[in-house]
């Protein structure tokens, strides 16, 4: 599995504080004025939260699974809200993730664990495509299911508040693995149950 999903060491909050102070100075602000004096600290705390996924391996959440004899029917958790940060501009993109898989040999994971995988993949500087890929590959690697479909729909602030400025535009990405790659009917069933509006 690729390096991008591995956990990394804790972040250096003092370095973040210094960098934020430098940015404030560079944009012509006074980093010592009342409203800004605690901003480097706030941003360091916020980065620790919104980039928490950097310190986790999404596959760990799936290690707790249960065996349900012969259950080999599709499981879908849809409308999992997520927030991420685009790696090009470091501004948010956010939306919903939908995860479907067909367990093999009754090897099921907890439903909340699928949402935890989404969270871990999203809470780092990201590309939307890579989040879907990471979620799908983590599930394949740990649960060895017959197939996985992951669909993400999101609005990118870098396309709304700046640049091309197209508020309301939605980006939809997917990662399809296993049986869903070849079996058109299975894929159509998953898509119709996910029913993106
Ligand atoms: N594929 C992909 N592209 C993204 C994602 N988030 C942001 N981008 C795009 O990354 C691209 C970066 O393009 P650049 O030309 O290097 O940067 P830029 O000059 O700021 O681009 P504009 O946004 O077009 O102004 C833009 O087209 C963004 O829309 C993502 O999750 N996936
Ligand atoms: Zn961007």
UniProtKB/TrEMBL annotation:
Pathway: Cofactor biosynthesis; 7,8-dihydroneopterin triphosphate biosynthesis; 7,8-dihydroneopterin triphosphate from GTP: step 1/1. It comes from the Bacteria. SUPFAM superfamilies: Tetrahydrobiopterin biosynthesis enzymes-like. Keywords: GTP-binding, Hydrolase, Metal-binding, Nucleotide-binding, One-carbon metabolism, Zinc. It is an enzyme of class 3 (hydrolase). Its EC number is 3.5.4.16. Zn(2+) binds at residues 86, 89, 158. It holds the Pfam family GTP_cyclohydroI. The keyword Nucleotide-binding applies. GO terms for cellular component: cytoplasm. InterPro entries: GTP-CH-I_C/QueF, GTP-CH-I_N, GTP_CycHdrlase_I, GTP_CycHdrlase_I_CS, GTP_CycHdrlase_I_dom. Residues 16-194 form the GTP cyclohydrolase I domain. It catalyses: GTP + H2O = 7,8-dihydroneopterin 3'-triphosphate + formate + H(+). GO terms for biological process: one-carbon metabolic process; tetrahydrobiopterin biosynthetic process; tetrahydrofolate biosynthetic process. GO terms for molecular function: GTP binding; GTP cyclohydrolase I activity; zinc ion binding. Homopolymer. Belongs to the GTP cyclohydrolase I family. This is GTP cyclohydrolase 1.
């Amino acid at each position: 599995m690729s390096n991008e999903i591995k956990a990394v060491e804790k972040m250096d909050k003092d370095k973040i504080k210094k960098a934020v102070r430098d940015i404030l100075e560079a944009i012509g602000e006074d980093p010592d004025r009342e409203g800004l004096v605690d901003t480097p600290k706030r941003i360091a705390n916020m980065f620790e939260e919104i980039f928490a996924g950097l310190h986790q391996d999404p596959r760990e959440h799936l290690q707790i699974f249960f065996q349900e004899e012969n259950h080999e029917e599709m499981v879908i958790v849809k409308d999992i809200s997520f927030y991420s940060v685009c790696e090009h501009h470091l501004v948010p993109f956010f939306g919903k993730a939908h995860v479907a898989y067909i367990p093999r040999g009754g090897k099921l994971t907890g439903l909340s664990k699928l949402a935890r995988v989404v969270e871990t993949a999203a809470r780092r500087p990201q590309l939307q495509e890579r989040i879907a890929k990471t979620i799908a590959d983590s599930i394949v690697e740990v649960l060895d299911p017959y197939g996985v479909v992951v669909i993400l729909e999101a609005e990118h602030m870098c396309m709304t508040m700046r640049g091309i400025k197209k508020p309301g535009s939605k980006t939809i990405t997917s990662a399809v693995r296993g049986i869903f790659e070849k079996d058109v009917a299975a894929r159509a069933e998953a898509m119709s149950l996910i029913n993106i509006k």
